[in-house]
Design goal:
Number of strands: 8
Distance between the termini: 30 Å
Strand content: 15-25%
Strand order of the largest sheet: 3-2-4-5-7-6
């Protein structure tokens, strides 16, 4: 086990799963994830579209053209909703798109406090256009959630999956056990 932030755990597990290309837009809920991506900039190709819808469609196009899992990274709420059209398309055509969404602090999820990018029941909303969705409640859960999302993408009919990492979970440090990939990125 190694002590790392939730953001580092996410990036390291994506790396273990064979991911090397990410389409993403930074935002305050993703600061710790983008810090971790910067640490691994020699490994990842990171593309920054100007809008979340473009992010989703770029990931879908990459998945279809390369026959590999594509990762789309975006802020919660309006960011994820902006990508919903692209995820609907990816769902319909069975594209292996892996969406990672930030979220507001864990303690405030679904409280309706009017926080930046907050929407109620984000997991329930995105469930309509994803095969699997999960919320990380601690940094230690992140490798398992990434691994399960990859399993879902690589078994049965490929369809988009989504995991959410709240900003406080991405920032928190914990002893992390990374998992070996058994699925790879080929869809």
């Amino acid at each position: 086990m190694t002590t790392m932030t939730g953001g580092q755990a996410l990036v390291q597990q994506l790396k273990r799963e064979g991911i090397d290309t990410i389409f993403g837009l930074p935002g305050i809920q993703l600061d710790w994830v983008f810090d971790a991506l910067h640490e691994e900039r020699a490994h990842f190709k990171l593309y920054h579209p100007r809008h979340e819808q473009a992010c989703g469609y770029m990931a879908d196009g990459y998945a279809r053209a390369s026959c590999r899992t594509a990762v789309a990274l975006m802020v919660p709420g309006p960011g994820l909703l902006n990508a919903a059209g692209a995820l609907s398309t990816a769902y319909a055509v069975s594209s292996p798109v892996f969406v990672v969404t930030g979220n507001i602090e864990s303690k405030n999820i679904d409280k309706g406090k009017g926080l930046l990018h907050e929407i109620n029941d984000q997991l329930g909303m995105i469930a309509h256009v994803t095969k699997y969705q999960a919320l990380a409640r601690s940094p230690a859960e992140i490798p398992g959630l990434v691994h399960e999302a990859m399993k879902q993408l690589c078994t049965g009919r490929p369809r988009p999956v989504e995991i959410e990492v709240p900003s406080d979970v991405a920032e928190a440090k914990a002893d992390i056990e990374l998992l070996d990939s058994t699925f790879g990125t080929d869809a």
